[in-house]
Amino acid sequence: MNRLSTFVVAMLITTLSASVAHASLKDAMKVFKSGNWTVLRHTDPMKDTVNCTGIHKENYGIQLTEDSLYVSIRGGIQSVTLRFDDNPARSMRLADDIEKKINSVIISGTDFTELVSSNRLRVQVSTLVRGIANEDLDLTGIQSTLENIKAKCPAQKEEVKPAAVPLAPVSSAALTSCSTELKARMKAQGIKDKQIEAICK
Q1: Sequence-distant (≥ 6) Cβ neighbours of residue 134 within 8 angstroms
Q2: CA–CA separation, 14 and 5 (whole Å)
Q3: Are 103 and 18 in contact (CB under 8 A)?
Q4: pLDDT single digits (tens) 23-66
Q5: Hey, how many other C-beta atoms are within 10 angstroms of the C-beta on 179?
Q6: pLDDT tens across 167-195, in order?
């Protein structure tokens, strides 16, 4: 098999794997949530391996893995520009063949390293059909989400709140009257009977 044929086969496998993974996420179990991210745990039915994927704001078109972020863009991706936080936008780059085939911008390598330490990501994509497409992602929670994914997505422990201790009932008499001893002390301090009566009503 020549190089070109090997490359084509690799692209087809990548495309099929991506579409199958996207479909299987619909039935995956939600095991962790942090900020705008939810981690889904799903098991490969053929290999029995556990796969962990983060999605952004319940959007299955934005998927986080251990080392990449996939942002689905319809309309035929041609070029990509990324901007992290309020830093200057990166230079525009042409979409690679895999991005074109799976209709998703892939953020990996040094871009991914910057992504996980950022609070905001803006993606601008030039497409064949839709013109310019934009995504603006609030990345809140991405670091703890990535940690969960790398740990094979254990289920999040629910916060246990202490049970409320009911207060002992207090009689209305206790709230509105004074003891004989207290009245005697007030009288000893020179407080007149009428004033004591008004205080202890």
Answers
A1: 122, 123, 124, 125
A2: 14
A3: no
A4: 467 778 999 999 999 999 998 888 888 999 999 999 999 999 99
A5: 10
A6: 555 555 544 567 777 777 777 777 777 77
pLDDT at 148 over 90: yes
Give the count of beta carbons closer than 10 Å to the beta carbon of residue 151: 10
| The amino acid at 79 | S
CB 123 within 8 A of CB 79: no
Sequence-distant (6+) residues with CB within 8 A of 176 are 200, 201
Higher-pLDDT residue of 27, 145: 145
Contacts of 64 by beta carbon, 8 Å cutoff, 6+ apart = 37, 53, 54, 55, 56, 70, 142, 145, 146, 149
> Within a 10 A sphere around the Cβ of 32, how many other Cβ atoms?
23
Q: Could you tell me which of 74, 76, 82, 80 has the C-alpha nearest to residue 94?
A: 80
127, 133 contact by CB (below 8 A): yes
**DSSP letter at 25?**
G
